[in-house]
Write a structure and sequence with these properties.
Elements lengths: L6 H20 L9 H8 L32 H15 L6 H12 L11 H10 L2 H6 L7 H15 L8 H9 L5 H16 L13 H4 L1 H8 L5 H12 L3 H17 L1
Helix pairs in contact: 3-4, 3-11, 4-5, 7-8, 7-9, 8-9, 11-12, 11-13, 12-13
């Protein structure tokens, strides 16, 4: 993913990225089981890749969150790392906050690919990225409740993957399949562009939990050795964790990864 690192550096980075996902999957079965004795009882000397079961958490302190998952699945942390990785790859190794936000909302939000536990930073971030109500309040068109619902259904898929000048034409064409009236089409375009415009870069929760740092490996891989690393690390963290302490710890972790790579 990096253009300037020597081959051995690239191999180390690839191994680190793969190792992160393997470790996440390996620990999923006992994730958030905090009782060391109970972990030993359940997993013995090979606690890796156990199927998540509520019974493991009986008699020990912890929280069972991954019902329905299978051995080899990743947690929401590993999945969130994948979302940023996909965004970085699509942007040729550059952090594009708007693209990252759209992919995050599309993946974890309603109708997305994620099936599993949603932690507080992810939940609050999704709420902050939902600007539909604000956009509807600013339109002057006189719409029925049904028309408002249909416009939201038409518009949201495009706001998840397009931005700026890319939005208007496909949104208008999609609406024209149902409504020919220019006023309704204009209202739909306004809805799409307003939703897009109000996506704040700092969309995260005031929360220190792990989405802040779980995403750092692919980001450092792209900005390894760059003076921009600290700035992009903070920007990426504030998408899900708009919290100064979370940023401080993430900057520290990013520097450690950078020096390791």
């Amino acid at each position: 993913m990096t253009g300037n690192a020597p081959w051995d550096g690239k191999a180390a980075i690839n191994a680190a990225l793969a190792g992160g996902w393997v470790a996440d999957a390996a620990s999923l079965g006992l994730h958030w089981l905090y009782d060391s004795q109970r972990i030993c009882e359940v997993g013995g000397q090979s606690p890796e890749f156990l199927p998540p079961k509520a019974d493991y958490f009986t008699g020990g302190f912890g929280y069972f969150a991954h019902g329905g998952k299978q051995p080899g699945d990743v947690s929401h942390y590993g999945a969130a790392t994948g979302v940023l990785t996909d965004s970085l790859l699509a942007s040729e190794g550059n952090l594009d906050i708007r693209d990252y936000q759209r992919r995050f909302r599309a993946f974890f939000g309603p109708g997305g690919d994620w099936r599993g536990y949603i932690d507080n930073p992810t939940r609050v971030t999704l709420n902050n990225l939902d600007t539909i109500e604000q956009a509807q309040l600013t339109t002057n068109a006189k719409l029925t409740d049904k028309q408002k619902r249909v416009l939201v259904q038409k518009v949201l898929p495009y706001t998840r993957r397009l931005s700026g000048e890319q939005l208007a034409d496909p949104v208008r064409k999609a609406i024209s399949l149902t409504y020919q009236e220019p006023e309704i089409q204009d209202a739909g375009v306004h809805l799409a562009t307003t939703i897009d415009h109000h996506l704040l870069p700092e969309s995260g929760a005031d929360d220190m939990q792990l989405p802040a740092v779980s995403k750092l490996a692919p980001l450092v891989a792209c900005y390894c050795g760059s003076e921009r690393l600290m700035g992009v690390a903070e920007a990426a963290v504030r998408v899900t964790n708009h919290n100064d302490e979370a940023v401080a710890w993430a900057r520290c972790a990013a520097q450690l990864l950078d020096q390791l790579f």
